[in-house]
Amino acid sequence: MGALKGIMAIVGIAAIMMGGLWILQGLDIVRWPASSFMLGDITWTRNGAALAVVGVALLWFARRRT
């Protein structure tokens, strides 16, 4: 069970980071890569927020005591 919690924590952190990048790209704050279709598209802001929430949930489950 410890390995599963470790994997959940890693995936949760990655989801939070990727969700944050999507949010910033959707808000047109981060313009990387310069030719991305995500820049300035509010849909990616919502998708990033949803992914970040999933990441937080994964971290919460990984840190929860049985």
TrEMBL record:
Transmembrane regions listed in the UniProt entry: 7-24, 44-62
Keywords noted in UniProt: Membrane, Transmembrane, Transmembrane helix
Protein name: DUF2905 domain-containing protein
Organism (species): Sphingopyxis soli
Lineage: Bacteria, Pseudomonadati, Pseudomonadota, Alphaproteobacteria, Sphingomonadales
